[in-house]
Amino acid sequence: MARQDLWNREETILAFNLYFQTPYGRIHGGNEDIVELSKITGRSLGSVGRKMQNLASLDPVQKARGIKGLSNHSKLDEEIFKEFSNNWEELSFDSQRIKAERKQTTVEREVEIQESKWLNRSGLDVIRSVKTRSGQTFFRNAVLNNFDWQCAISGIDVPELLRASHIVPWSKNIQARVDPSNGLCLSALYDAAFDKGFIGISLDYKILISNKLKKKKAKVYFHEHFGKLEGIGLRAPSKFFINKEFLEHHLDLIFDK
Questions:
Q1: How far apart are CA 42 and CA 3, in angstroms?
Q2: Rounded to an integer, what distance in angstroms lies between the CA atom of residue 60 and that of residue 105?
Q3: Which of 31, 153, 209, 238 is most buried, most CB within 10 Å of its CB?
Q4: Which residue would you say has higher pLDDT here, 104 or 143?
């Protein structure tokens, strides 16, 4: 029988972790991730769905899109939303730890770190590895879902060709490493071009082409893949606003003006 009691802190963390990685339109009982959360928490699919809708009512991006969600969120929901929206790494790590405990396995196996890489290492080293791996997985899922698994520039929707691109590089800002507002879903070509500063994104989310790349305007590939993009708007995200401070960093220090 499905539980009827209030959601506790651990269950709410699991729900938030899934919410941030799920497009709004995928919040339904046919989503295998929602089915898994239902099994882990012992709650009905309907209960999990309502919880996700309650969390949506706290989401500023959904509010901006005119989506209200359900208004029955709890004080605990508010506290955890505030806590983890400023610390994405801890959300991803805690949720993996909780999930592993409930599935009676280890967090190392849950995040699929090879046993040889953690079996004989110190506890602190293992935690660092788990946090890094769980954070990378969370970031990729959250960023790709934010753009509905389509390249924000070209619209390519083949998962194997998509990258979760950091706007501020991983090595330059520890706090932003796992922050979905620091990510763009780009195809492999545009990911490389963005990373090397050949293209940029303006503060009004328009595509910019570097002068260095414009020197190749006589080439066929420039017109096919780059020239026609300048000034075109980026695909609108559905889950997280893109942080303009991160875009400024890229424009100032990476984009080749």
A1: 6
A2: 35
A3: 153
A4: 143
